[in-house]
Specification:
By secondary structure, this protein is of the alpha+beta class. The chain has a domain of 76 residues. Helix content is 16%, strand content 34%. It has three helices and nine strands. The longest helix has 8 residues. The protein is globular and about 35 Å long. The chain starts with 6 loop residues before the first helix and ends with a helix.
Length: 110
Amino acid sequence: MWNEPTYRQLQRIPPLYATESTPWEKKTIYEHFFIGSSDWYAAEYDPNNRLFFGFAVLNNDLQCGEWGYFGLDELRGIDVRGIQVDRDLHWEEQPAGDIETIVKSMTGDY
């Protein structure tokens, strides 16, 4: 993985289930990972299992975008002909409701 998040960066992400009662559009997205036309948005993190909860859209297929779990080690293991998942270094924390990809996927407006 290129630009893997540091321990300190991961510490600021709430633990799993911490935002369970928060409506999807108000969940804060702390990290954005991508490769090609696939994106993962992290809202919660469990350091013991290195597991995120967040939103994923694979191959720009907005119809199949969904909230769920994905592992940091899983992202680290993706390698497509030498290209690896990258962490968006320009990402700023923001509500999921402000992220066009998530909104379009959730509302069916694609």
